[in-house]
Specification:
Shape: elongated
CATH superfamily of the largest domain: HUPs
Order of helices and strands: EEHEHHEHHEHEHHEEEEEEH
Largest sheet: 6 strands, parallel
Number of helices: 9
Radius of gyration: 22 Å
CATH architecture of the largest domain: 3-Layer(aba) Sandwich
Distance between the termini: 27 Å
Number of domains: 2
Helix content: 25-40%
Number of strands: 12
Oligomer: single chain
CATH topology of the largest domain: Rossmann fold
């Protein structure tokens, strides 16, 4: 079982093979790195550890910026936890820490987390000395007694992949491509809140998803086929991310999901959407009847897409 470490925890000296990074999205490139990490730890009879940050450095150094995350911290830690690691260490990134050179960072990892071997992610940089290279890290390691290795590059079917690429795909509505890069769908979690209550009147009752983490990225406006987790169940559905122009509900962005074959009272419950496939852009219909017909088409298409997905998972 993976142990989650916080800033106050310590590990014995020389105890682990580790890597450090944000790991937002925990994508296929990260999986390649973690596979190598576990292999090297097993070969040396040491523990494996991923050191990640509670907050993205940009959010600490440039608060109010426009960077949005693929995952919440809780989602990120749970995904890393599922990958067979011995430890996931969550470090608080601070302004003071940002002033550390790569050598300082490596000394902290050695003294606090017991790092004996450091595997550096492909093209990854850390420390205030941003011009540092892999050769710099190797030299730092020689001074500290840390073996430094470079992780293999992910060269799979969906290469190249990075957190920046995945964010761009989600922002563009290309959620199926983002899924390929991550190895699983993009997930958006919130709470069912009261909305405009228009959907029921046209035969498509919706759950309005609110209380979202403001730092998590939203997909491009439009309609999507989704899997929905709520009330202890996993169901098929379709969601509209947008401004509901046909119903003239103003410019407030809403995320409204129609869960197929389900109409229970779920207000106040946590809900998670898995974005499977983009269906269409949002546009203003000529009438409510036209909207109802379009939603029927969207539902039929979503069911076909999601049934194919479930068949693949069997």
């Amino acid at each position: 079982m993976t142990k989650i470490l916080q800033n106050t925890d310590r590990l014995p000296q020389g105890a682990v093979v580790a890597t450090i990074g944000m790991f937002d999205g925990v994508h296929q490139g990260h999986a390649t790195l973690i596979d190598e990490l576990r292999r090297q730890a097993a070969a040396r009879g040491l523990k494996s550890a991923v050191i990640t940050f509670a907050h993205h450095p940009q959010h600490v150094l440039r608060p109010g910026g426009d960077l949005r995350m693929i995952m919440t911290l809780d989602q990120r830690v749970k995904q890393l936890e599922s990958m067979g690691l011995d430890y996931v260490a969550v470090m608080d990134f601070t302004v003071e820490l940002s002033r550390n050179t790569s050598l300082d960072f490596m000394r902290v990892m050695q003294e606090q987390w017991g790092v004996k071997v450091l595997i550096v992610g492909y093209n990854h940089r850390f420390g205030h000395d941003r011009d540092a290279t892999f050769a710099t890290y190797v030299e730092n390691g020689r001074k500290l007694g840390i073996e430094v290795m470079k992780a293999p590059e992910y060269l799979g079917e969906f290469a190249p992949v990075s957190s920046t690429i995945v964010r761009g795909l989600i922002a563009a509505g290309k959620v199926d491509d983002a899924c390929n890069c991550m190895g699983r769908p993009f997930r958006l979690s919130g709470e069912v809140v009261h909305g405009f209550h228009n959907g029921r009147g046209i035969g498509f009752p919706t759950a309005n998803v609110g209380n979202l983490d403001p730092l998590v990225i939203l997909p491009h406006t439009g309609a999507y086929a989704v899997m929905v987790e709520v009330a202890g169940r996993r169901m098929q559905g379709m969601v509209n991310v947008g401004h509901r122009p046909t119903l003239d509900n103003g410019r407030q962005l809403s995320i409204e999901v129609n869960i197929f074959g389900f109409d229970d009272d779920i207000y106040g419950m946590p809900i998670t959407l898995e974005f499977i496939k983009f269906l269409r852009l949002e546009f203003k219909m000529g009438s409510i009847d036209e909207l109802r017909a379009q939603l029927t088409t969207d539902r039929d298409r979503s069911i076909a897409i999601l049934n194919r997905l479930n068949t693949k998972l069997l």
